[in-house]
Specification:
669 residues, elongated, alpha/beta
């Protein structure tokens, strides 16, 4: 059984103690003062010792903790974490020596340094308080001393210390009394608990007219950066007391990870999925920034992490859910994790997959400013009537969306994707439509260009791109019923509009259907299916070259960009196509049963509609629906007649009767 002793007194030590208590791991936490003990407090899993220990007392304590032989069949082990202040060198040496004498394991928790001073700072670096005092003897002006009360007596060696020195110390009666005995009283003694904000430090320097700031390199958690920045603002010079030698040890997160591995406990985490807007710091909402500030680890793509580096958090560069999950599981020291997502977490975001991946964790979503909201605001246009599309790593029928919507917003991603889209629009006769392109939104390099697709298609664009396309003449009609005369036909057979309407109704298409049109002819069924299933895909399968050419022309005429022409004979031509949801068979070349077997094997629940003119085909179809695993069968015979004007009269001319046979796969392969 492993027992734990933590020598704390620092922010890191207190955080480690809280971490273990939350995990219900018993520990003894040693601090040097009653005030330090009050800050921690005892609980069911934490015992606190509030007195200074010398090396001999440490040895007795360690031996006492390991006394009693074995527990639960295991030897008592003692692990001692030294989380004392970087400048408490003597205390650290005593802890290390006591561990060596008693056989306890010693782990040094290091407070990371913070490199914030640069060549522009007016600073003097010294190695000790004594050296700082010697330096100040040759200077003039008030001094704000922020190194605590322990070595404050050394500043009394300055001849005019009672007038020059303003000491900031802990707010305990004992400390105040000790400082008063040294001659530090009234406004020269500032009793407050830190760390302090940049604004507070600046106010103090100005309040006391300090020309000098004496500080130790106390790291980020000790408020070192706030002190240095305040000195710059207030025009004070810095006297920096360097750390006593280079130490080897572990960071707080590394110590947490080591203890979790050694003791063997799981961590219940709080996962924050944070929408960060376009990417710049100014785009972060207050909630998003708070979630990032509170996180111990921030995960995201490199571009996203650049804008939260100022928080100084641990980082992991990744956007892959499984990779992120694996990393977090390997690092149990992180209890609060922020997963960054570009824009808003609900707008074409990876948040959906992250929610699935971290389903067993506590997850909170923080929405961000989406690119569509930002871009439309820049364009002074509303976005509630905009059709939203993503071409970023996705296949979308944007030409179809442009045809039926007055405004279409698209996430494009790479700059060449914009160029490809503009050229495609021109190919489909949409070159005159107005396009607005937004690049690097929210960054200093932000650029917005507006013009026709034809005027912009030869330009180059950056990789962070979005577009808004306006089509005042959009046709929102989604029902089938195109007139036969609308199609380019030549001498190729075509399913007539009346039969086409009924057949498409029997198909029961969805917006995202995957449709096969087998024996497509002119492609009339394919085109109408593509215009209905605008978010889906239609595959027109045709064996005759002249018919294939006509389908391609009709595809372009009706801007059916989600229509793919497949030249070949079914069922062989179907082998490499994706699983269909709906199949229309207008011509089978005698292969009806094999075609149906093929599509049922691909999707046992597929919806099938067959058109038959010849009685032999009707007989073959009836045999198929009897022997193959299908249900919901229906047979309709359609006999339509169209008027033809003869002189001043209209004569009805009958068309060939067509049998429309429909069925649905029974779910049996």
């Amino acid at each position: 059984m492993c027992k734990l002793i933590i020598f704390a007194g620092t922010t890191e030590g207190r955080e480690l103690a809280e971490f273990l208590s939350r995990r219900q791991i018993p520990s003894l936490v040693c601090v040097a003062t009653e005030y330090g003990g009050q800050l921690l407090g005892e609980n069911e899993y934490r015992e606190v010792s509030s007195r200074r220990l010398d090396q001999e007392e440490m040895c007795r304590l360690f031996e006492q903790k390991t006394a009693g032989g074995r527990e639960d069949g295991k030897d008592n082990e003692l692990l001692v974490v030294d989380a004392t202040h970087p400048y408490a060198a003597v205390v650290s040496e005593n802890i290390k020596a006591a561990c060596e004498k008693t056989g306890a394991e010693y782990v040094r928790l290091l407070r990371p340094g913070e490199k914030i001073l640069d060549d522009s700072d007016d600073a003097v670096c010294v190695s000790s308080v004594e050296e700082a005092v010697e330096f100040l003897k040759g200077t003039q002006g008030n001094v704000l001393v922020t190194t605590g009360s322990k070595e404050l007596a050394k500043f009394t060696l300055l001849d005019d210390y009672q007038e020059r020195i303003f000491a900031r110390v802990l707010s305990t009666p004992e400390v105040a009394a000790a400082c008063a005995q040294l001659g530090f009283t009234g406004r020269h003694l500032i009793c407050m608990q830190g760390p302090f904000s940049e604004e507070m430090n600046t106010a103090m320097l100005r309040q006391f007219g300090a020309k000098w700031l004496v500080t130790k390199e106390s790291g980020k958690t000790g408020g070192f950066g706030e002190k240095i920045r305040a000195a710059r603002i207030a025009g004070a010079k810095v006297v920096l007391i360097g750390r006593p030698g280079e130490e080897k040890g572990r960071s707080l997160s590394q110590v947490k990870s080591y203890l979790a591995e050694k003791i063997g406990f799981d961590v219940k985490r709080q996962i924050s999925i944070v929408g960060i807007g376009m990417g710049t710091r100014d785009n972060l909402t207050v909630e998003a920034l708070k979630a990032c500030r509170e996180a111990q680890l921030i995960v995201g793509a490199r571009r996203m992490l650049e804008n939260v580096k100022f928080l100084g958090k641990d980082e992991f560069i990744s956007y892959k859910p499984d990779e992120i999950y694996g990393y977090i599981k390997e690092h149990p020291e992180y209890e609060k994790v922020a997963l960054l997502q570009s824009g808003d977490v609900g707008f074409y975001s990876g948040a959906k997959k992250l929610l699935e991946t971290f389903a067993q964790e506590e997850v909170v979503l923080y929405p961000g400013i989406s690119s569509v909201v930002y871009f439309c605001a820049r364009l002074h246009t509303a976005w509630e009537d905009v059709k939203l599309v993503s071409l970023h790593g996705r296949c979308a029928n944007i030409i179809g969306e442009i045809s039926r919507n007055r405004k279409v917003f698209a996430l494009v991603g790479k700059g060449e994707g914009v160029t490809t889209l503009l050229r495609k629009m021109a190919d489909y006769g949409m070159g005159n439509l107005t396009v607005s392109v937004g690049e690097d939104l929210s960054y200093e390099s932000e650029r917005i260009r507006r013009g026709s697709a034809d005027s912009l298609k030869k330009e180059s664009f950056r990789d962070l791109c979005v577009v808004l396309i306006e089509n005042p003449g959009a046709d929102p009609v989604v029902t089938h019923g195109l007139e036969d005369e609308e199609f380019l036909r030549d001498k190729v057979p075509m399913t007539k509009s009346e039969v086409r309407c009924i057949s498409l109704s029997k198909l029961r298409l969805h917006d995202d259907s995957i449709v096969y049109d087998v024996g497509a002819g002119t492609g009339s069924v394919s085109v109408e299916a593509a215009l209905q299933a605008v978010s889906g895909r239609v595959y027109a399968v045709e064996k005759k070259q002249e018919a294939v050419a006509l389908i391609k022309e009709n595809k372009k005429k009706f801007a059916a960009d989600n229509l793919t022409v497949v030249e070949g004979l079914a069922p062989e031509a179907l082998a490499e196509l994706p699983e269909p949801t709906h199949v229309f068979i207008g011509g089978s070349s005698g292969n009806l049963k094999r075609i149906m077997e093929t599509v049922l094997a691909k999707n046992p629940l597929v919806r099938i509609v067959i058109n038959c003119i010849a009685l032999e085909t009707v007989s073959e179809a009836l045999e198929c629906i009897k022997t193959l695993p299908v249900t919901d069968t229906d047979i309709v015979c359609v006999s339509a007649a169209r008027s033809k004007q003869v002189g001043s009269y209209h004569m009805m001319m009958g068309q060939n009767p067509v049998y429309i046979i429909s069925c649905t796969g029974g779910g049996i392969v």
